[in-house]
Amino acid sequence: MTHKEAIRHHLRIYGSITSYEAIQKYGCTRLSAVIFQLRKEGMAIGRTDIVRQKKENGKNVNVVFGKYYLEDENEV
Fold first, then answer.
1. Phi and psi for 36 in degrees, rounded to 5?
2. For residues 29 and 43, what is the distance between their CA atoms, to the nearest angstrom?
3. What's the CA gap between 69 and 34, in Å, rounded?
4. Which of 20, 24, 45, 76 is most buried when burial is the number of CB atoms within 10 A of its CB?
5. Cβ 32 vs Cβ 17: under 8 Å
6. Tens place of pLDDT for every residue, the chain, 76 residues?
7. Which residues pair with 62 in a beta bridge?
8. Cα–Cα distance, 55 to 60 (Å, whole number)
9. pTM score above 0.85
10. How far apart are CA 2 and CA 56, in angstroms?
11. What is the largest CA-CA distance in the chain?
12. In 7-61, where do the E strands start and end?
């Protein structure tokens, strides 16, 4: 399964995906490129949020990543 297929499947099942999830679950380090391709093919990926979290390993480091949402699960 390609990264594009894995991300498409994940969006259909869960409705959203973060860059962190893409790396951890699928080894996809270029999620924005895959999202660009899926949008170009007609998949209705709408809102994109920037998520900020603090690591809890003793350091106050902000972790910032994108979260993409599927608008209509019946698309593509």
1. -55, -45
2. 20
3. 13
4. 45
5. no
6. 899 999 999 999 999 999 889 999 999 999 999 999 999 999 999 888 877 666 666 666 666 678 899 986 554 4
7. 54
8. 6
9. no
10. 33
11. 43
12. 16-18, 45-54
